[in-house]
Specification:
heterodimer, A: 116 residues, mainly beta, 7-stranded mixed beta sheet, 4-stranded antiparallel beta sheet, 0% helix, 55% strand, B: 114 residues
C-alpha cells in the first residue's frame, strides 16, 4: 500500500482565518514533505521532516507553520494567508535510509486551497 | 544547486503512437530520477524511476533511459492510449540527511487523441 491521505480535499478561507491541513501515511515512512503547486507548474518544496524533526524550510513565510506530531501525521497550520497563497498543497512521504528504499516518494491527492 | 529542464512542454499524439519526453539535469551528484504522472485534480503518481547505476528500465509500455555522461534521461511510452493523457514531470535528486529532495522539471502536457 502506497497511500498518503490528505484532508480536507478543498478549503476556502478568508485572510483572517486560521485553518489546518492534515496528512497521514501508514507506510512506516520517516520522511514527510509539504509541497505547494500552482496551476500549470511543478510542485515546489516547502518543508521536509525527517524522523519528526524539521530538516528543511525553503524560506517559507511564517504564516505557514508545519507540525509533525508523530511519525504518521503531518500538519500545516495556516494563518493570515494572502490570495496569492491559493494553490494545491501536496503532502508526500518516503522511507529514510535503513527503513526501506529511501528514494521513492509518494504523494497524496492534495488540498485545493482558496484564500478570499 | 540542481536544475532540471524538460522538453517538450506539450505533446500531442495519436492513439497507438509512441511518446518521448526528455529531461536534462545539471548536478552530477544526482543519482535518482523518477517520473510522475499527474491527472487533473489529483496528486502526482510515481510511474517509473531509475537510479544512476542503471542505463535503462522498462515496465510494460513505459521505459526510462539514463545517460549519465550527457546528464539526460528520457521517458518513452509505447502504444499510447487516451488514459495516458496527463501532465508528466521528471525529477532529479540525491539523498541527504535521511530525506530525498526532488527537483522537478517544468512538466509536459501529453494529449493522446483517439
Amino acid at each position: 500500500d502506497t497511500e498518503v491521505t490528505q484532508t480536507p480535499k478543498h478549503l476556502v478561507m478568508g485572510m483572517t482565518n486560521k485553518k489546518s491541513l492534515k496528512c497521514e501515511q501508514h507506510m512506516g515512512h520517516r520522511a514527510m514533505y509539504w509541497y505547494k503547486q500552482k496551476a500549470k507548474k511543478p510542485p515546489e518544496l516547502m518543508f521536509v521532516y525527517s524522523y519528526e524533526k524539521l530538516s528543511i524550510n525553503e524560506s517559507v513565510p511564517s504564516r505557514f507553520s508545519p507540525e509533525c506530531p508523530n511519525s504518521s501525521l503531518l500538519n500545516l497550520h495556516l494563518h493570515a494567508l494572502q490570495p496569492e497563497d491559493s494553490a494545491l498543497y501536496l503532502c508526500a512521504s518516503s522511507h529514510s535510509p535503513g527503513g526501506g528504499s529511501p528514494y521513492e516518494q509518494y504523494f497524496g491527492p492534495g488540498t485545493r486551497l482558496t484564500v478570499t | 544547486g540542481e536544475n532540471v529542464e524538460q522538453h517538450p512542454s506539450t505533446l500531442s499524439v495519436q492513439e497507438g503512437d509512441s511518446a518521448v519526453i526528455k529531461c536534462t539535469y545539471s548536478d552530477s551528484a544526482s543519482n535518482y530520477f523518477p517520473w510522475y504522472k499527474q491527472e487533473l485534480g489529483k496528486g502526482p503518481q510515481l510511474i517509473i524511476d531509475i537510479r544512476s547505476n542503471v542505463g535503462e528500465k522498462k515496465d510494460q509500455r513505459i521505459a526510462v533511459t539514463l545517460n549519465k555522461t550527457a546528464k539526460h534521461f528520457s521517458l518513452h511510452i509505447t502504444e499510447t492510449q487516451p488514459e495516458d493523457s496527463a501532465v508528466y514531470f521528471c525529477a532529479a535528486s540525491s539523498l541527504s540527511g535521511g530525506y530525498n529532495k526532488l527537483i522537478f522539471g517544468a512538466g509536459t502536457r501529453l494529449a493522446v487523441h483517439p
